[in-house]
Design the sequence.
């Protein structure tokens, strides 16, 4: 045997290196509310419950700082007195008196009927309601805009109706249109006398004027034709057109005419004024050159 020490062979495989273990994730606790750092009396204050974080608190603080030094207006209460309401309206900007309302810039369209008395009464009501000058101008401006549109539309419709009515009369009377209009005007003037223009300008229910209405023109043209037959709407008699004897004969003729005499003696008759004037003219012509 050999003297060498026997070699002992270990066929056992070396141990595998230990695998690195992955640390378990550490759960992070939910952050405490920002109010947790406050003292208990502030932390539990209900006014802070709606503020989610420090940034929201900072914004609220900035807004509050903006209000510091500004005048605060208390909301009206049901039991307020008139004096309390007056003070409230003054703080909102209502002028002290109706006459102090600033009406500059309130334009009334030309031709639009505008009653100063109505405006004054409306301003009084709006002052009692506490309106400022700007509010008053907005209210009246809206009224003017709406009324102005209606007025313009009505004016246009009336003008169109008048033109249409006059054209109907032209078609009806043809070449005698001008003479018929003249008769209507003379008859109207004989009945209305010195108030001719004001009567002719009277406004009818449909917005037209009395003197422009085709039916009125037609009626007075017919009346003027009858009056012309009695010499009531023609040229006036005078010493330059009739001799005294002619004037006397004409006067007697008229006074013996039952229709003329009825108009002459009845002051309520539409033809009365013209009849009286006719007799007076004839009388002057009769004695004027004698």
Sequence:
């Amino acid at each position: 045997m050999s003297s060498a020490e026997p070699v002992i062979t270990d066929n056992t495989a070396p141990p595998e290196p230990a695998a690195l273990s992955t640390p378990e994730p550490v759960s992070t606790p939910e952050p405490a509310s920002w109010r947790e750092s406050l003292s208990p009396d502030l932390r539990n204050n209900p006014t802070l419950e709606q503020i989610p974080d420090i940034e929201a608190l900072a914004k609220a603080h900035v807004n509050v700082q903006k209000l510091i030094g500004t005048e605060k207006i208390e909301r009206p209460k049901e039991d307020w007195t008139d004096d309390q309401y007056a003070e409230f309206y003054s703080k909102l900007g209502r002028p002290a008196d109706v006459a102090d309302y600033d009406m500059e810039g309130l334009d009334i369209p030309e031709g639009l009927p505008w009653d100063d008395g109505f405006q004054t009464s409306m301003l009084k009501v709006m002052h009692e309601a506490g309106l400022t000058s700007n509010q008053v101008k907005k209210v009246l401006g809206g009224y003017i805009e709406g009324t102005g549109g209606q007025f313009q539309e009505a004016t246009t419709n009336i003008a169109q109706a008048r033109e249409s009515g006059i054209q109907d009369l032209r078609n009806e009377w043809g070449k005698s249109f001008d003479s018929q209009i003249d008769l209507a005007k003379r008859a109207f003037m004989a009945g209305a006398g010195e108030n001719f223009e004001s009567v002719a300008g009277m406004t009818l229910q449909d917005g037209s004027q009395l003197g422009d209405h085709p039916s009125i023109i037609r009626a007075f043209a017919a009346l003027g034709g009858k009056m012309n037959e009695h010499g009531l709407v023609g040229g006036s008699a005078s010493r330059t057109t009739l001799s005294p004897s002619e004037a006397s004969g004409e006067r007697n003729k008229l006074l013996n005419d039952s229709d003329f005499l009825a108009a002459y003696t009845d002051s309520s008759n539409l033809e009365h004024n013209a009849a009286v004037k006719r007799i007076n003219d004839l009388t002057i012509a009769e004695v004027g050159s004698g």
